[in-house]
Amino acid sequence: MPPTTPYCGIPRVAIVFARLMVQGKSQGVKPFIVFLSDADAMRPGVSSRILPTRPGTKPLDHAITTFNRVQLPSNALLVSPTKPENERAEFLCHIRRVAVGTLSLSIMGISAIRVGTRIAALYSERRTITAPDGHSAMPIISFSTQQRPIVEGWVQGKVLTAFAHWAVGMCPDPARPTQ
């Protein structure tokens, strides 16, 4: 589901996991580097269908990409072409960093929650309305409808920050590929 179309004239390259076939025999699922598109069109045998936009912003052109008899040069293979003793263990070793990358992308949003909450809190303290007495100013933070979302954002920021620190500590050591 990553961005794979030649959207905005940007060439796309991807690491693709596919079954390596050598003389009609499977050598297991291996990672390959594949050029998906140039700035104008998809490469031969590669097709990509953009998924419907989601509500809100559209930072990426998420798509479903399919391959039909794509021939690759031998240097596209990123690992040994030999058949592994344990295909499952080798595959898990190859994809171990995917979870770390996914988590890293998600963790970046935590700072946006914290900054947005801080901006809302400062604005709510500074923005005033006329008090019921008709003479004095009253900050809008005094309303529960303003307080609740700010407190929720603050709590979410604190909890997610603690989770991020815990999760980073749980990530595998890159020096130990089988961890």
What are its keywords?
alpha+beta, Butyryl-CoA Dehydrogenase, subunit A, domain 2, two-stranded antiparallel ribbon, FAD binding
Descriptive overview:
This protein is α+β, with helices and mostly antiparallel strands and 179 residues long. The chain folds into two domains: 7-83, Beta Barrel (Butyryl-CoA Dehydrogenase, subunit A, domain 2), CATH 2.40.110.10; 96-170. The chain is 37% helix and 22% strand. It has two helices and six strands; from the N terminus they run ββββαββα. It has helices spanning 87-126, 144-170, and strands at residues 12-22, 25-37, 46-50, 63-67, 128-130, 137-139. The strands form three sheets. A two-stranded antiparallel ribbon has the order 1-2. Strands 3-4 form a two-stranded antiparallel ribbon. It is elongated and about 85 Å long.
